[in-house]
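Weekly structure sync - notes
Attendees: PM, LS, DV (DV joined late)
Agenda: review two folding runs queued last week.

Item 1: First target. Sequence and structure tokens pasted below for the record.
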Amino acid sequence: MRAPTILTTTLFILYTTFGFADEGWKAGTAVCDITPPAGIWLAGYAMRDRPAEGAIHPLWVKALSLQNAQKKTVVIVSSDILGFTAEMSQKIKKTVQEKTGVEPGDILLNSSHTHSGPVVGDSLIAMYPLDNNIEQLQKINHYTEELVRKVTDTILSAVTNLKPAKVYSAKGVVRFAVNRRNNKEAEIETIYDYKGPVDHSVPVLAVKDEQKETFLAIVFAYACHATVLSGYQWCGDYPGYAQLELEQIYPDAKALFVAGCGADINPLPRRTIALAQQYGKELALSVVRAIEDTLQALPPSLKTSFETITLPLETPLTKEELQQISDDTKKAEYIRRSANYLLKGLEKGLPLRISYPYPIQVWNIGGFPLIALGGEVVIDYAISIKQKIHPNAMVLGYSNDLMSYIPSVRIIREGGYEGDTSQLEYEMPAKWKEEIEELIMHSVQNSWNKIK
């Protein structure tokens, strides 16, 4: 009867000595201050007429790396910017892959979409009165180069400083998000029956230091525009205040806000610092409650999928139509500038777009679904994905590329800003075809079926 005991002991020694044992999760975090100097243009609003004048609080980029027992590594990045361009994302991911081997599809670059952050790259550049401001454009380009370097270095730091960890999911709820297409902002404090779809859930991915049993990182999402503020100072808006609050409550943790599919959702009422602080604290406390009441341990398993699909546009505007828009003094200045940017492209021999390569990221983190979509994604997608995949899924927009709004069939048919008129400011020469919703949903469902 001694042989099994000896064999078991020998196997245990081999496993522990040579690292064959299942090691569980490892995690690493890193942060970097990305606050620009005063004097750079703020992103998100066409009505601003001058650059930033200072900061309310710092802007940050933060990274969380997770590694499973098989050494597969993924990285989640949160950032206090309007959004990453495709060019920025490609540069960052290529450098990280060359230095660490982490695949581009295993790096998720999300932005909070704060409208109190800097203009980066050429994102929405036609919205701002900068076409003849060489000095300002040079400042933006210099800052963008620095930002790419800082994001890359932050990811590298997170990936190369792993420690044993435990990973959990949780789910909270907070209710300041309002469908802006169906409720008038000016009347919001006298409305008692809000209309339109909304998702008030707060999905959470929490990581503990295995040795200390303290929280190492808290990733949390909400589907709502970061547009409480519209002034001339740098600020993370309500997501920034939420992260500050959580890091006071959990002093060993890095709090990472990631933006959900809130393209047609606003925080209402809004426009004051006190409201941004209030919503930030409400969101932070919803995360605390989720951690206290709903925390679920996740096994050390990682499966990922990344796909780029082609989304088709309707027939582009003609050169003559663009010229009419550019010349129409009754139209908003930024609309005329947008048309003019496309005309300049035609003069250089650049054809108008008829489609766009769209990034879709689907991860299975120990059974927890994380879906990250590019662009400004409307709430319909989050609701549909949760209904088809899992009600507790973390469904994100504003990830890896900010090319335009991504409306559902319903919103394309309704028209309005998210379904039609916003396209031109993103230098898109036409509306999306209605089939984009089916294409995106099919890709998400198919990818999840492969890795669930």
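Item 2: Second target, run right after the first with the same settings.
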Amino acid sequence: MERILRGPGPVLAVSLAIIATVLASQYIGGLEPCILCYYQRYPWYAIIALMVVALALPARGQAVLLGAAAVLFAVGTVIAVYHVGVEHKVFAGPAACGSATITGQSVDALRAQIVGKPVVRCDQPAWTLFGISMAGYNLVASAAMAALSLWLARTAWKGRP
């Protein structure tokens, strides 16, 4: 049990909690994510998969996967910095922000697609708490988890408890 708590266990638990929170905010709370919100989720999903595998590995294997998680968290931090920058009009958002892919083959199909799909802009946060958007909280969480993963990887590599 101690090996799990000092290895991939905390990273897995926090990652699952973060993903559960964003999915609940989307499917229960009704907050529609923009394309950058989806991009910010991908590192978390990959880390969950890595940590599940890491649970079955010896300490050195866990250290390698925790190091990989640290890199993925750093990537997530960069994506979050970009998203926060888009929200604060520091950066221009990608072309996919605020526009949907048009797939209709007729005028009626196009109209149904446009009317049936809300436009979710990347530069307008759907939710804030204390003036910080979900992208801002993701930035903090990703950076903190990168540091934790790196520390846990170092600890596991050296074989310390």
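Discussion on item 2: Residues 2-94+122-158 form one domain.
Action: LS to circulate a short write-up before next sync.
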